[in-house]
Amino acid sequence: MKVVLIGFRGTGKTSVGRILAKRLQVPFHDTDALVERRAGMPIPEIFGQHGEAHFRALEREAVASLRTAEGVIGTGGGVVCDPANVADLRWHGTVFLLSAAPDLIHERISGSDRPGLTGLPPAEEVRTLLARRKEAYLGAADACIDTGTRTPREVADAILRQIDGETGISPGDRRERDDLLGKFGLETVREMVERDPGLLVCGIAGNPCAHSKSPLLYNRLFAHFGLHYHYTRFEWPDAETIVRLATLLPLKGLSVTIPFKADVIRHLDEVDDHAAAIGATNTVVRCGGRMYGHNTDWLGVRAPLVHRQGARAVVLGAGGAAAAAVYALVSLDMDVTVLSRKPDAAQRLAERFGCRWGGLEEFKGADADVVVHATPVGMEPDTRSLLAPCDLERKTTVFDLVYTPPETPLIRAAREAGCETIPGTEMFVHQAAEQFRLITGIAVPPALVREMLA
Which keywords appear in this protein's UniProt record, sorted alphabetically (predicted)? Predict the structure, then answer.
């Protein structure tokens, strides 16, 4: 058994960890204590003599040494900021995030001899670091527990109940969950959750989503990183029902696809700045009963086009995928024009980001260094392409966000015209890598994602 406690200083990781270890009759490992033993000096002296970078290197060695350890592991407050640490801590372990309000944390750690990390006043530093680490904390955790109003013993009791499989779901909610799983055709998921209460669930929410490669990718990645997770499909006509089912399951994350990327936002507790600006969410992280929305589509567009920074770009389409594309291209200082069959939709999208707009018939290949196709045209079984080879210039980079089939009609046309082509699988690879990090806290190289999809 491997139980990991993460969270900010003052949230009770050491005191709760010692109680847990005693009750479970397993060793307690403290990463800060391991660092001090390796360095032969207290942590304040490590910072004073060698700086934070040296401390983080020692911390990384300490965490790596515990990858296959049995017992309870208490960690330093910043340990999960390094995704490599998260991968080691998560390896066949269960991770609990201990949290508390900023003012209470400041009160608990007042008088500590630990050096500050920001140069800010102590109370402000707590708030700043909590905000900076929030994404990493939520991603790295399997469960979140507020320690603000609980004693260490009560926190340990709550963790033990979860380890023992006590979900706390009421009989009424259980009946509703089972009924919805039956309607979704997910009886297998019900059986898995009932048989293995420690299992966490993730899935893709869409209608349709049977074509998605996400279940294949995620389940392979879960096995690769030793995560006790299962990824499935939530295909249903409305987002509200999917979100309701998600709240009744031990769910950690959702990938959101068409047609729910905009609609799902109203069902979430928090949405990050990127998703709010784009107006669409494709990633939901759940922890502590709250749902957090993100958008990684724009990063999936941005990463393959970094080499065309400052170019003239045309986005074909005006929906959610197009919004993510425009957001990405603007971040690369591109001169963007939005073209759509519905010029009024193109106008609304373009005006949000200060771009030009027009109808699809206004496309001129000579005016574009980059073309991003962000409509469903060409997705299997559709065999159409909005552009023909004669519409394109050799100097143009054509990026088709459709990834089924891997070679779309547009990609074939662009290759025939001699253009640089970027298939939609590249967007999928880069957005999925970022999505996996948000949901699990583990950084996945794009090359590994491609390998898992092969």
Answer: Amino-acid biosynthesis, Aromatic amino acid biosynthesis, NADP, Oxidoreductase
Q: Give the other-Cβ count within 10 Å of 275's Cβ.
A: 28
Exposed/middle/buried for residue 354 (C-beta within 10 Å: 0-12, 13-18, 19+): exposed
- What CATH topology corresponds to 2-163? Rossmann fold (3.40.50)
Binding site residue list for shikimate: 212-214, 257, 282, 297, 403, 431
Q: What pLDDT, in 10s, does the model give residues 286-323?
A: 999 999 999 999 999 999 999 999 999 999 999 889 99
The fold of 302-422 is Rossmann fold (3.40.50)
Q: How far apart are CA 393 and CA 409, in angstroms?
A: 17
CB 86 within 8 A of CB 80: yes
Q: How far is the C-alpha of 241 from the C-alpha of 238, rounded, in Å? A: 6
pTM above 0.90, yes or no: yes
Catalytic residue numbers, as ranges: 261
Q: What is the Cα–Cα distance from 278 to 360, expressed in whole angstroms?
A: 22
Q: Do domains 2-163 and 302-422 have the same CATH topology?
A: yes
- Residue ranges of the annotated binding site are 212-214, 257, 273, 282, 297, 317-321, 401, 403, 424, 431
The CATH architecture one would assign to domain 171-295 is 3-Layer(aba) Sandwich (3.40)
Q: Residues 223-261: pLDDT tens digits?
A: 999 999 999 999 999 999 999 999 999 999 999 998 999
Tokens of 234: 């939530």
Residue set of the binding site for NADP(+): 273, 317-321, 401, 424
